[in-house]
UniProtKB/TrEMBL annotation:
InterPro entries: Peripla_BP_I, SBP_2_dom, YtfQ_transport
Protein localization: Cell envelope
CDD domains assigned to the protein according to its UniProt record, in alphabetical order: PBP1_galactofuranose_YtfQ-like
Periplasmic binding protein domain sequence ranges: 26-271
Keywords (A to Z) from UniProt: Signal
GO cellular component, one term: cell envelope
Name by which UniProt lists this protein: Monosaccharide ABC transporter substrate-binding protein, CUT2 family
A GO term for molecular function: carbohydrate binding
Amino acid sequence: MKLRTTLLASAVSLLPVAGMAADMTIGFSQIGSESGWRAAETTVTKQEAESRGIDLKFADAQQKQENQIKALRSFIAQGVDAILLAPVVATGWDQVLEEAQDAEIPVVLLDRTVDAADDLYLTAVTSDLVHEGSVAGQWLVDEVAGEDCRIVELQGTTGSSPAIDRKTGFENAISGHDNLEIVRSQTGDFTRSQGKVVMESFLKAEGGENICALYAHNDDMAVGAIQAIKEAGLNPGEDILIVAIDAVPDAHLAIAQGEMNATIELTPNMAGPALDALEAYFADGTMPPKWIQTESKLYTADDDNQAVYEMKKDLGY
Ligand code: GZL
């Protein structure tokens, strides 16, 4: 049911009419299923839509921007009422977002941001990605307590806002601490398999005994790296400290087992706040803030990670 048809028919105003959630149709352009966190976000988004009686059109882009742009154009052609977009990279969205704007279809960004004028989207529901990197960096500063530490970094998808911002935050936190140095940094594309492959190359290039810590932009790359560290005959979490982001169940398990040291939680429920904002917008034209920030929480070995693992393991990761 195309909301705007109802509105145009009324010819009264473009303000949405109340109680539209029940027959809203929303297109969701998801990046892919590159990580456990991404799988959980997809699961939760479908649950949130179903609980609201929303007809969710789901498109998996397999981490390709051109597939996301095709999906958005398809949603526009279908006349959906709104679009959820998790943008794989930050640039290249202006044209298709203008097409959605011209079609009067509001777009809400999930978990990543875009380099585009903010009138091209209704709001962005994300964590503070720079802060996440800073928390990871500060944890390492405190953990090494002045000792020299040569760091290797597994970056997220090149050109994505989390890869850019988590790197910035981490570097901000370790700047001014000359005992900490990033000696290798390369993308692992947020996947376990690439995290393992790139960590193997770091170990070969640097020698495991010369690496003090790994900073991975997400837990999945860290879990892949843990396998590589073990295969090199080293003890992850001890010989090489490991800090990452997402707080997926397997990260909590690794911390509980002493094979990882810290992770920063990213909620997979970006859709709840997004759909709340859309419902308010359609009900009475309420304009949400341009950024709806989700919380970040540091987990270390001081936390009961086994209990958190048990709580999270059936949530769709
Ligand atoms: C960050 C999100 C990232 C996750 C990864 O907001 O976009 O994408 O940290 C996922 O697990 O691939």
